[in-house]
Amino acid sequence: MTLSLAQTKLGFASDTPSPSWRTKTAMPTSRGQAAVVAGDDGLIYVMGGYDGSNVLSTVEAYNPLADMWTTKASMPTPTRGAAFAKGSDGIIYVISGTNLGYVDTVQAYNTTSNTWYTKTSIPVAAWMASAATGNDGRIYVIGGESTGAFRSNITQIYNPSTDTWINGTDMPTGRSELGVVKSSDGLIYAMGGYNGTAISIVEAYNPSTDTWTRKASMPSPKVEFGIALGPDEKIYVIGGGTSYVNNDPPFLNTVEIYDPKTNTWTIPGWMESNLPVPRKELGAALGNNGRIYAIGGAFYGYTNYNNEASIILPENVPPKAYIDSITPNPSTEGETVSFVGHGSDSDGSIAAYKWRSSIDGTLSTAASFDTATLSVGTHSIYFTVKDNDHSWSDEAMAVVTVNINYTEDPNYQQIVEANQAIDDLEQQNAQLNNKIDNLNATIDDLNRKLDLMTIELLGAGIVTLILVGVTIAVVYITRFKKPPQTTL
Question: pTM for the complete prediction?
């Protein structure tokens, strides 16, 4: 029933203990100060540690589904109080620690091949430091006890892809025996520890800005506790003590829960939420099944306890999607249309977006986008968002009209053809007018020539008449006029 509630998120019942613990098959080897890491294969690995007499290299893996343990390849170098983290490549890194002196070895374990490799040594060896893998894939090793710094505040950063080390900004509060975990907000939280006395100070490191910020202190100071990020994205601090000395009381059975979203702490009030056996120097990890496992530790002697905690998740409030704008609307086929939307989640954050069209199907998985490929027609546009709990919102809807490009409209084509015919007729008419003009010009020219010929003919006639008249006069004079008489 508990598993069903945890996995299906039916809701949080106020009268149901959360976390609630039960005892599982004990680890074969009793120990504390071991590296406890959940692998990508679903197994929980316990590596190295201390049994009160010997520093161990033993590796044992727990299968939560079968509730059974198997022995794996031993570590090349025995170590206890090491920092450890699973890289983004699935490799488990066990870093530094002590074995009759500080160990600077970096040991990498491949869960698939069950083999170990030695990597570049850490620059400053440290015992009871703690580590976490950032969103950038680098491993941040923080604090610890070393030769040069009994209560170290150093931040050492390992890059698995290049097998190299650099330093980050020092933690404000130097300490060892602390707990370190990366939250879903991307920050790496350093909690509690020892700096001459047990402390409750919490400081958060931002890998993106290489800066530290003070956060709300733990309800009580403690050292050597188990720490894990729960399925509800809260940080669980389990057990621990207040004494620097190994296997020295007091031993705590408390569970304190930190919510990074609100920067607040709570302590469950149910008896069932307390760790069944008080202890410190234990390890904790979140299994792939959504349950936290607290393994090993010291309680007047080193133990092999294996306790499983079920976490009841509160009912998720679905997110809401909003369409802010779609422009231009209406638009024309081939025109770029801009879509802008956003989502809100009262109990989380927005993790994904999706736009779809009733005509074109899925359009985008971004909050905002542009497209020039919408089909012609009236689209029902749907927009939805998903929160960090994998719940999708109801779809917001808007209507977008995409008109056909007028150049493709049949009526437009007919108009174009008619206009072309008119243009052709006008051109033909212009050519005919030009011919008429040319003919009129020819006629005008002929008329001018005719006028000239008429004038010439008229002039010739007058001259002829004159000549005829002169001739007649001459004839008349010569024929009828008497010559003058001469006197002798």
Answer: 0.68
